[in-house]
């Protein structure tokens, strides 16, 4: 079982941006010291109340320079927002600086205002994501290539450097739409799902499609499925809920506003899933959240829920959002990382 945390370098109440970065890097250091497997880095833009992680590849390179063991993942690199050749260069550079520790997680995000700020049509996001990923993979594997697509026309380009990990770093796809599941399986790419309060078993039918496509394409082993979700570990269930509850509830409020804003910008009808989820997040309680596929509790509780999902959907690993709105106590978050690495991880050896 791969265990990591999802890190936004959150904005902390009453702290300067410099202090927030310092606290964020201390969480990185704790994750390296205690033995977590992966530090997952967000890409978030233009939200001064939420997070400072605008450039996961820059942050990842800084992390690579101060660590020796922990892997560095992007969760996610939002492919449609930047030129794929530039992403290929910078991600390969990170792979070199980290000596081959990059996991390249990609997606397209659902924050419409970011696309509008960068003058990119959100309606093009899926097609751009597919095209960008194809270009990046070719850039990493071919000495010289040309490409003509809907959005990019590339002639006679050699990308330098190419990554340490050949033919490419491990690629994982954030599954949002139904068609992503078979496409990721056919391509032999890892899949990760994101839940806030839901039970990830609701994706079981799609996971089965993903795994069949993986097997049919001749890829070895079992297709891996990973999960990003809220999570916090403390000595007891009550202590974990007390420490994590306020930041989780604030996170739900923030997500509700984001979803509502994206729905308005897209002129989504009232019955659109974004509107429904936005409303749901304004009403949800911590007790309801705990019934979903989240990992908030003692080491024994977290181990039990992980083993249940390992049995039910073949879960390969998780990235836990340990301070998703910046309200968790820093010392408590450090202790949560220690318990996750030392006590939860040991149950899967």
TrEMBL record:
Species of provenance: Candidatus Acidiferrum panamense
Domain (Luciferase-like): residue spans on this chain: 1-311
Record bears the keyword Oxidoreductase: yes
Protein name: LLM class flavin-dependent oxidoreductase
SUPFAM superfamilies: Bacterial luciferase-like (SSF51679)
Transmembrane stretches, start-end: none
InterPro entries attached to this UniProt entry: Bact_Lucif_Oxidored (IPR050766), Luciferase-like_dom (IPR011251), Luciferase-like_sf (IPR036661)
CC terms in the record's Gene Ontology section: cytosol
Ribonucleoprotein recorded as keyword: no
UniProt keywords, alphabetically: Monooxygenase, Oxidoreductase
Molecular-function annotations in GO: monooxygenase activity; oxidoreductase activity, acting on paired donors, with incorporation or reduction of molecular oxygen
């Amino acid at each position: 079982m791969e265990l990591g945390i999802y890190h936004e370098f959150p904005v902390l109440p009453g702290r300067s941006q410099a202090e927030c970065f310092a606290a964020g890097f201390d969480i990185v250091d704790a994750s390296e010291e205690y033995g977590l497997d992966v530090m997952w880095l967000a890409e978030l833009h233009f939200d001064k109340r939420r997070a400072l992680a605008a450039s996961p590849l820059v942050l990842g390179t800084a992390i690579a320079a101060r660590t020796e063991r922990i892997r560095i993942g992007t969760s996610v690199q939002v492919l449609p927002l930047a030129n794929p050749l530039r992403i290929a260069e910078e991600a390969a550079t990170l792979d070199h600086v980290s000596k081959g520790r990059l996991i390249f997680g990609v997606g397209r995000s659902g924050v419409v205002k970011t696309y509008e700020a960068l003058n990119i049509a959100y309606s093009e996001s899926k097609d751009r994501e597919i095209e960008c990923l194809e270009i990046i993979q070719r850039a990493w594997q071919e000495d010289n290539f040309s490409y003509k697509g809907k959005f990019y026309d590339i002639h006679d380009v050699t990308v330098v450097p190419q990554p340490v990990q050949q033919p490419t770093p491990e690629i994982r796809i954030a599954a949002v739409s139904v068609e992503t599941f078979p496409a990721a399986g056919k391509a032999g790419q890892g899949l990760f799902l994101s839940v806030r309060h839901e039970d990830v078993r609701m994706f079981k039918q799609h996971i089965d499609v993903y795994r069949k496509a993986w097997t049919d394409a001749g890829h070895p082993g079992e297709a891996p499925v990973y999960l990003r979700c809220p999570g916090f570990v403390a000595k007891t269930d009550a202590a974990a809920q007390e420490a994590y509850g306020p930041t989780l509830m604030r996170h739900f409020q923030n997500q509700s506003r984001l979803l509502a804003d994206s729905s308005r910008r897209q002129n989504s009808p009232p019955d659109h899933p974004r509107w429904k989820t936005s409303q749901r997040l304004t009403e949800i309680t911590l007790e309801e959240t705990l019934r979903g596929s989240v990992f908030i509790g003692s080491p024994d509780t977290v181990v039990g829920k992980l083993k249940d999902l390992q049995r039910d959907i073949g879960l390969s690993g998780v990235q836990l959002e340990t301070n998703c709105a910046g309200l968790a106590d820093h010392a408590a978050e450090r202790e949560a990382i220690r318990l996750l690495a030392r006590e939860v991880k040991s149950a899967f050896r």
